Amino acid sequence: MASMEYSGQSSVNPFTTSGSAPSTTINMTSNSTSSVPYLRSSKKGKEENRQVNQRRRFSKQQNSVTDAFMAKMSYRLSLRKRIHKQLSRLSDIMCFIAILGIVLMIIENELTFKQNNDKDTVAAWSIRLIITITTVILIAVILLYHRAKLSLFCVDHSVDDWRVGLTNKKIFLIALEIAICAVHPVPRSFPHQEQENAQTTDSTPTEIIPHPLSYISIDVALGLPMFARLYLLFRPILYHSRLVHNAATQSIGYLNTVSINFLFVIKAYLTQWPERCLLVWCTIIFLVGGWSLRACDYLPNNEHIPLTDGMWLLFPILGTVGYSNLAASTQCGRAICAISGVFGVFSVALFLALVTRQLVLDRWENYVHTFVLNTELTKEHRNQAANVIKFAFKIWFWKEKHTPLSAMRYLQVQRKLFRSIGIIHQIKQEQRHLPDNTIDLPEIMNIQQNTNVNTDETIRSMAALESKVDKIEEQLASLDYALNGSQNVFYFSL
């Protein structure tokens, strides 16, 4: 009968008969030390799993932080792009309203100039009312523009509150800009056309009294400062420039601490299109100054001077000539002439700079010119060297013939010899100074770049040489060790 016993040793006899088969015993010894490697491996696996989970959690956190940073950066870039578009639209609106106000001011004054003694009319009063409305709109757009500029400042500097960028200087500039744009001819009391007609029909001709030297019409006094609104033309030029829209230019300027502002843009335009910029500048100054002189100056019959006379008076002032058969008859006209003279000096300086730039040889023309000069100097040097040999041979020949040193021929040959030697020294000096004309900033930059490249190659060669020397030292050390080992072997073998 089968029996199974359990003790410290477990024996199993599945076949137990009465002596027919031997008893088979399977010992299952419960040894606690046999499970130690399994426990250690399980602990090690748990530790590895825990480390892997920690790495995964850390990588997920890092990826989430990176994604959040990139999302924030993308949002800031898109917001900056929208603000730039908003600034571009606002600058276009400001420029249009400013030019519209100036044109309406000129029309209103021209209508007034046609009346006797600059009397007011209904049409002029209506135009002044429109100018007032456009001025209010312009001031509101200016405030919106500066609000957008502050938002752009917050985006660029990662600032949450826009009031951080509102410094005292910024407040002063905004107030100054509003004050400049707020000056305009205001509508006064409404003119009555019937009363004006009655006054003109009942009036009797009287003697015309010229205006005093300090006389100026109120509309002209309030209208001329409106030309200061032309500074708003600079903003559309800035925001419609490819230098501002190009991200590569912005990045390069930021890395080189160069601000892409209006001054940078106008310098680039003056470098690229100098003739166009000078033509536009002189045309604006000429037209504005000519009409301003027409508005300020009067004829003896108290009528304004024609526009052609104003331009003729302004032309010699802008050209800094100062000669004309006309002269300003009022203080306002004299002030316009003085201001035009300042702008004229600036315009003449730009013109001279442009002409000088066109007359200067460029880089390759300078190379050709220097090469030609060097060739001519080399030929002259050879000729003078031949003359030195010729005159020296003549002097030697006459000395051999015992020609007296006071002879005229001998003295003339000596003078020619010394003159040729002096010319050779001058030619050498000119040849030494000749390369200075061809060395410019591009050449210096090329020399510096080549020097940097050669220095880097030398450093790499030195590093490679040092690594090779280290390897040679290691091989020598191993060779020394091998020789010592072989010496010991030979010693013990003997």
Question: What is the fold's blueprint, element by element?
Answer:
Blueprint: E1 3-5, E2 11-13, H1 36-113, H2 122-157, H3 168-182, H4 193-202, H5 218-223, H6 234-239, H7 242-245, H8 247-255, H9 262-272, H10 274-296, H11 307-318, H12 331-359, H13 363-400, H14 408-433, H15 441-493
Helix pairs in contact: 1-2, 2-3, 9-10, 10-11, 10-12, 13-14
Kindly describe this structure.
The structure is a single chain. Helix content is 72%, strand content 1%. It is an all-alpha fold and 494 residues long. β1 (3-5) and β2 form a beta hairpin. α2 packs antiparallel against α3, α9 packs across α10 (274-296) and α10 (274-296) packs across α11. The longest helix has 78 residues, at 36-113. Mean pLDDT is 79; it is low at 1-40 and 194-205.
Condensed summary:
The chain is mainly alpha-helical.
Structural class: mainly alpha
Domains counted in the coordinates: how many? Answer: 6
Radius of gyration: 48 Å
| pLDDT averaged over residues | 79
List segments where confidence is low: pLDDT < 50 over at least 5 consecutive residues: 1-40, 194-205
β content, as a range? under 5%
Main sheet? Answer: 2 strands, antiparallel
Q: How many E-type strands?
A: 2
Helix residue percentage: over 70%
Shape call: flat
Q: How many distinct helices?
A: 15
- Distance between termini? 79 Å
* Strand arrangement, major sheet: 1-2
Helix-strand string: EEHHHHHHHHHHHHHHH
